[in-house]
What we know:
By secondary structure, the chain is mostly helical. It contains 18 helices and no strands. The protein has a single domain (3-195, 210-392), classed as MFS general substrate transporter like domains (Growth Hormone, Chain: A). Helix 2 runs parallel beside helix 9 and helix 2 packs antiparallel against helix 10 (172-189).
Amino acid sequence: MNETVVRETQTGPARRWSMLGLGVLAQAAGAVFSNAPAFLLPTLQDSHGMALSRAGLLVAAPTVGFLVSLMAWGVVVDRIGERRVLVTGMAITALAGAGAALSSSSLVVTGLFLLLGGMAASSANAASGRVVIGWFPPQRRGFAMGIRQMALPLGVAAAALTVPRVAQSHGVGWALALPAGVALVAALACLFVVDPPRPERSSARETGLLDNPYRNSGVLWRIHGVSVLLVVPQYLVWTFALLWLMTDRGWSAASAGLLITVTQLLGAAGRIAAGALSDRVGSRMRPLRWVALAAAVSMGALALTDWLDSPVSVALLVVASVITVADNGLAFTAVAEIAGPYWSGRALGAQNTSQYLAASLVPPVFGALVGAVSFPVVFAVTALFPLVAAPLVPTDRPERR
């Protein structure tokens, strides 16, 4: 009996899908927390008179927190398992969110709490990914990971729908209380997570699963590099779409927030479709290359139509928002499969660390660039990143079992 049949026999569908649901909830809670500050930009500018470059530093605080802690969480997951990491991380995120909400009169203290919350929220990235990879067989992982990866755009959608309105009506403090509450719910739910099975260390040593997958191959390094390039247009759109719609297109905060919510929901569906496509074609890397090329084309078209002041640019913003998030699940699944059960925590930590390093630079760097030039120029510059990424995508490599 092969491994897939054994796994299907030993784990019922109810457990697999419930673990996936808990992973999605934890990841979404982290996404709400880390992306909520981006939707405070209009309020910070209008009510607090902050320059866009300075406000961008506050927006980047939770992303920087993600950056400095992801590798550490990956090591911890490999050592102690997924459940304890998820519960602990989400609980600390909730406490940090409450601190940020209560200290909103001091933006420096708020930024420190957002930094701490980002450090805790990153626990969901490696741990929830391991839960999905561990409980689903290879021929279903792309689809399952696509569902898990939709947690990020769903979290952004929830933040876009709620944070701008609450911030304008009740202030920054109440707006930051929302992600704290979501993280608390996730922490309680993750008490029901069951760690997936994996081979005993003795047999894993004999089959090479304990060997460092980075030592004799550059495949993982190339996937990390491609993901870094592709995260730039994704975070540019996420961070500045609300501001662009309100300042350049004259939309209200409510209308802009609603449109972004719709785009994030479409992006979530796009991630599922990309994962299902990778299962069907038996490849993670070919769809990843297709997504990179599509991202370059969509961002270039957005730049051109915005420069021409065409209303079509709004539709292309939606298209770009969907395409630029479709790569994450593909790369994430490939990294976990190649790294194997005893290295996937660290490999996923490295994957996310490299992405968040680039993402943390997007708000301040591109915020200053928007102020210096214009949105069409920034969109055009951003289109170059996925164009460079496409030829760097490696060919598929068999997973380590």
